Amino acid sequence: MAVPLLSVHLRSLGISHSTIGILNSLYAGLQLFSSPIIGSWSDIRGHRFVLQLSLLLSSILYFVLGAVTAVPVITITRIGLGLCKHTQTLCRTLLTDVACSTNQLEVQSRLVSYGGVGFMVGPIIGGHLAELENGFHYVCCAVTLFFWINFAIVYFFLHNTQHEHKENNTILERHTEETSDVKINTRIWNKKKEDIQETLPQARSRTNFPSSDIFQALTHLWNVNWSVYWDVFTLKFLLGFAQAVHYQNFSLILKEEYGISPSGIGYTISFQGLVGAATGFLTGWMGRFYKKDNDHVLRMLHGFAVLALSFVFLSLAPNLTFFLICLIPLSASSSLLRIVTSEVTLQRTESDQRGSLIGSGQSMSSVARLIAPLCSGLAYDMFGSYGISLLRMAVPAAAVALCTILCLHQRKEKLS
Predict the structure, then answer these.
(1) What are the pLDDT digits (tens) for 32-56?
(2) In CA terms, which of 76, 106, 389, 415 is 20 to 30 Å from 201?
(3) CA distance to 168, 190, 195, 271, per residue, from 180 (Å)
(4) Where are the transmembrane segments (predicted)?
């Protein structure tokens, strides 16, 4: 609700585009840095408790973000959110504790689906609230309310299973000590104690935070065999960079270039999400046209070509209607490229290394999202919307050039 409108709100306070980019990059960097710390602490203190604390602190910080207009306070608030707002990851982690092991995939899929609905509905609600006087304040108040509702759900309906393991372990140790004095054979109790202790590292291994944190990202990237994966990871980085530049300035362009209302911005963002979701369902059908493209290189070439052309047409759009029409191929190609690059990674990877390589690919996207806001903010301040247009077009154009080289190299190998 608040994130799509944050850049517009900051601009209304007179903050420059480069400063907005620095704030967004700072937030992303702090998220990467703090994720392993919060993850390790949640393994020790309990996922339920840390999630509750994260929800509570995030609600307070969002309320402050909507109530103040001083740039230093806004900066401190964004720093606080970057350090403690790990609610989505903590929710996924807590689900692994409370859900049955046989239903893990189904539960996680439902969580992703509900999250997708939220990403489509949230911008619409936030857009309508933002049209009121001091609208961003009401948006942040609504976000605060939702955090409190989530806090209540976690408090009343979820249980911390890891602490149950620890309590069982403590009881077992006490019982073992008491029975040792009367010479009862403790081997049975020790065996039960070992069984319970064995469940703890398994639970922790399931609750490791994803490779979006900076340390695991660097480790993944260091261990990658770049001679095999350099091309697909480079394309993944370029895709993530282009998407980050686009969404970083999307609301600002609609507001400053076309004068669209906040509710219109919300509907437009939701429309992009709907197109992307529909494209995901059509990926299998589109694969029928690429039966000979076993390496997916041709699909990536066409996808990046459509993405580059979409950015060109967006930059030349004479009116809002044409601009919105151009969003259809842009969202469709972005969704298709995310799927195809993941398929290429899995295709080249052994079954026992897929998790690590997927994590490395996610790390490339994380690095792109970290750099893009700063670059786009500087480009906007120096060259205006034309700077953003050139940056958006240059990145997929470089990807098209790389895919063309890969296609030519592939043909040479087939002919030789």
Answers:
(1) 777 767 777 877 788 888 889 999 9
(2) 106
(3) 18, 11, 20, 68
(4) 53-76, 111-130, 136-158, 228-245, 265-285, 386-408
- Given a cut of 90, is residue 64 above it in pLDDT? yes
Predicted confidence at residue 218, as pLDDT, reads 56
Predicted confidence at residue 178, as pLDDT, reads: 45
Q: pLDDT for 137-171, tens place per residue?
A: 999 999 999 999 999 998 888 765 544 444 444 44
Separation CA 47–CA 153 (nearest Å): 14
> Comparing 1-159 with 211-416, is the CATH topology the same?
yes
Q: Which candidate, 413, 403, 415, places its Cα nearest to that of 299?
A: 403
pLDDT confidence of residue 5:
85
Q: Which of 262, 263, 342, 270 is nearest to 12 (CA)?
A: 262
Rounded Cα distance between 56 and 230, Å, is 42
- Checking if the pLDDT of 309 tops 90, the result is yes
DSSP 90-124: HHHHHHHHHS-GGGHHHHHHHHHHHHHHHHHHHHH
Structure tokens at 153: 């759900």
What residues contact residue 22 under an 8 Å CB cut-off, 6+ apart? 373, 374, 377
Domain boundaries, the chain: 1-159, 164-205, 211-416
d(CA 226, CA 293): 23
Second-level CATH architecture of 1-159: Up-down Bundle (1.20)
Q: Which two tokens stand for residue 199?
A: 């469940």
Q: Enter the CATH code of domain 211-416.
A: 1.20.1250.20
The CA-based dihedral angle spanning residues 141, 144, 146, 148, taken in that order and rounded to the nearest 10 degrees: -130
Taking the alpha carbons of 62, 64, 69, 75 in that order, is the dihedral positive or negative?
negative
Is the pLDDT at 221 greater than 80? The verdict is no
Nearest to 90 by CA among 4, 25, 151, 22: 151
Q: Distance between CA 350 and CA 361 in Å, rounded?
A: 15
| 87 and 52 Cβ atoms separated by less than 8 Å | no
